[in-house]
Structure formats: structure tokens, C-alpha cells
Amino acid sequence: MVKAIVVRENGGPDVLRYEDVAVGNPGPGEVRLRQTAIGVNFIDTYHRSGLYPVKRNDQGYFIPGMEGVGRVEAIGPDVTTLKIGDRVAYGTGPMGGYAEERLIPEAKVVKVPPALKDESVAGMMLRGLTVWYLVRALHQLKAGETVLFHAAAGGVGLMFCQWARHIGATVIGTVGSEDKAQAAQAAGCAHTILYKQVDWVAKVREITGGKGVPVVYDGVGKDTFMGSLDCLSPRGLLVSFGNASGPVEGLNLGVLASKGSLFVTRPTLAHYVSTPAELALASGELFDVVTKGAVKIDVGQSYGLAYAPHAHSDLESRATTGSTVLVV
Ligand SMILES: NC(=O)c1ccc[n+]([C@@H]2O[C@H](COP(=O)([O-])OP(=O)(O)OC[C@H]3O[C@@H](n4cnc5c(N)ncnc54)[C@H](OP(=O)(O)O)[C@@H]3O)[C@@H](O)[C@H]2O)c1
Prior knowledge:
With about 325 residues, the protein is α/β, with parallel strands linked by helices. It contains 10 helices and 15 strands.
């Protein structure tokens, strides 16, 4: 038996229970991983609350967590690329990360460059692969382009700002506090806007000389969606990639016409990094920008595995900066 965080009923952070679970032996194409650090992402809160429904196992629970790092402890039949002792990481699931040990398909893990520390790796896989597809696949961010990114001091946000700076793009970032503004600026965000205090749509218009931006990246959702549309230049693209303030509902498509023949997409990482080849490409580019120092991983807070409820409540109450990890 190993320690894990299990969810039996949906609800607030207190439904995350620290219990003993059996892991079992790896099946065909699987390995058993002894984990050292586990990423805590906003999507874990959606799974816990029930916003994104999750199937329980036959004992009536699921283990959240889509991201982690550790060593291969056992290998199942037909595993060809890994051996016992390899240090590997994953950031596209499958779910089951909040545990000392877990089973995972060989196809979902990548070997980690030795220079990177475990906590950094746990804080960079899901968020870093997300930034990869936001700037390299969904939209090819270009030098000289100016874009708006909401929650610029968050886990995804701080990596986004640095990767965009590395490309030569200019980021306008919204943030919830002065401390977060400083963190975003240190990560290369050229203009920070305290969006709880000022008319942020007017501010974006002012910064861009009235033109608006060609792309808005919006992981905040409900509270910012309509304002984000108003920040776009004609034929601009709103990338609505998250629901930190709640899901976006009931869009009248005519609004996209009246506000400038706009485009909206609602992407998820799973559709941009789905095959082993895509994982190899995306994680290779991610490890490259991180190992050469262009993108530094800011693990703003770490907790013991048993303290996952605290990690969730801090993340949901906007008390975190950068990435959040659980250490084992
Ligand atoms: N679609 C995908 O493929 C994908 C992949 C990864 C992440 N995401 C999304 O990206 C977003 C960022 O993820 P993350 O894990 O890096 O989280 P995060 O940005 O570290 O935390 C969320 C931030 O959102 C802001 N926020 C604004 N209104 C909020 C509210 N009502 N409640 C809570 N937070 C609020 C807060 O920053 P301020 O205090 O600065 O406002 C908060 O710190 C999330 O929406 C997540 O679901 C999507």
C-alpha cells in the first residue's frame, strides 16, 4: 500500500482524503513510478469540484493529478524505451498523480534532462506543454506581436511571459495584486494591469494606441470573457483556455460579428499534445527553453502530499504565484 489523495464525492478541498491505496503491478506497456514531486493544476480543482466529471474506479473513488516526476520502479510487458531507475515526467495525465506511486503508460512519460530539479519538473510539465501549444501550435507567436494574457503571474502565466519574451513578443498581462505585477514583470511582462482595480479594457486600448491586440489568451473565463473580446483588433483571436473564475456560457455568435469578425477557440492540451510524437516534440522544445535559461520555473509554493487540500484552497483563492507542487 502507498499513500494517495482520493476523491469519493465532489465538493470543496476537504473532499481530498489522504489514504492508503494499492498500486498493483504494471500491465502491458505500463510502468510503475515512484514519484518525488507532483504538479497541482487548476484542472485538478475542476475534477475535484465536478465541473469536469470524472469516472470513479470500482472502489468508488478517483485519484486526481495530471502531472508528476519520479523514477521507474517496475516495468510491465512490452515496454521498450524505459528501464528501472529512469527518471521520467508526465504532464498530460492520465489522472492519478496525487500518490506516492502510480502506474502510467510508457507512451505518456518522457525522460527528464539531469540538470532539472524534481520540483521544477513537477511545476513545468502540464503548464509548460500548455504554453508550448499556446505560442507554437495553436498560434505561432511572432517577434514584434503584442498579446494580452490574463492572470500573468499564475503557473501558466509566468511561463507564458518568459517564453513570449524569448520569442520577442510583447505581453500585456492582467494580475490580481501589486506583488503579482512585480512577479509578472520579472518574467518579462512588458505592461501589467491590476484588473480588479482599473478599467482593463480601456487600458489595453490605451497601450495599443486604440488598435487592440491580435490575440487574447484568457484562462480566467467567466469574469473576463466579454472584456477580452473588446480588447481584440478586427479579425482577432480569443483563446479561451480556462475557467478560473467559472465557465463561459451562452455566447451569441452575432457578438463576434459586431465586435470585429472575431475568432474564438476553446482548446485543451489533450488535443494539441496527444501522440507520443507530439509529446516528444513539445517536451523537447520545452526542455530546450528551460535548460538554456530562457524560461525559469517559479515554484511559488510546495506542500506535502497530505496537504493537498491546502494547496487547492490557496490556488482557488488566488493566493498563489507561479507553479504549485506537492512533494513526496
Ligand atoms: N485548456 C488547457 O489546455 C489548459 C491547460 C492548463 C491550464 N489551463 C487553464 O489555465 C488557467 C491557469 O492555470 P494555472 O494552473 O496556471 O492557474 P493559476 O494561473 O496559477 O491560478 C489561477 C489564477 O487565475 C486568476 N483568477 C482570476 N479570477 C479568479 C477567480 N475567481 N478564482 C480563482 N482564480 C482567479 C488568479 O490570478 P490573479 O490573482 O492574478 O487574478 C489565479 O491566481 C486555468 O484556468 C486553467 O484551467 C488550461
